[in-house]
Design goal:
Elements (H helix, E strand, L loop, with lengths): L3 H22 L3 H25 L4 H25 L1 H5 L2 H22 L8 H18 L6 H23 L10 H11 L1
Length: 189
Amino acid sequence: MNSVPIMLTALRALLAPTMVALALWAPRAGAFAACLITAFLSDVFDGILARRLGVATPALRRLDSLADSLFYGSATYAIWHLNPEALRSRWPALALLAALELSRYAFDLVKFGRETSYHMWSSKAWGIALFIAFFTLLVAHTDGVLVDVAIYAGIAADLEGLAISVTLREWRTDVPSLVHAHRLRARRT
């Protein structure tokens, strides 16, 4: 039973190349829907089960973040391959999002010597928005404001993550918000 959370996380990582393969050779709405729903549910339940089973370690949290990045990166490739205009029309916002992602990663490596995995509430909201945006683009074949919402939710989450990294004095996992980071810092002084 203790291996179920890591299996769910690994499943999400394995769905990443599946998304690419679907985009390249069999772009079927039903298959994309199955992958997106499976990835979303695995992301929700891996953390819940890990906490309930007492196996929620920093390493598992970091692996969870990596699986998310792999899956959603692959889903982005699928959109780029099938509907490049959806990305081209949003390039300034997407460039800002990519720059913030890279800046956060670099800042965390310099400051803490490793990547962070805060699992912020804003990141959870971004995950829901990403699921909806990818579903509308890959399954419903519609492009609209829900895609924009996902991009700006990502920008907000990255800004909060960067602010948390600036605020914290030492590496931590599971910091739900900037408010929590300030409380942690105040307790350490």
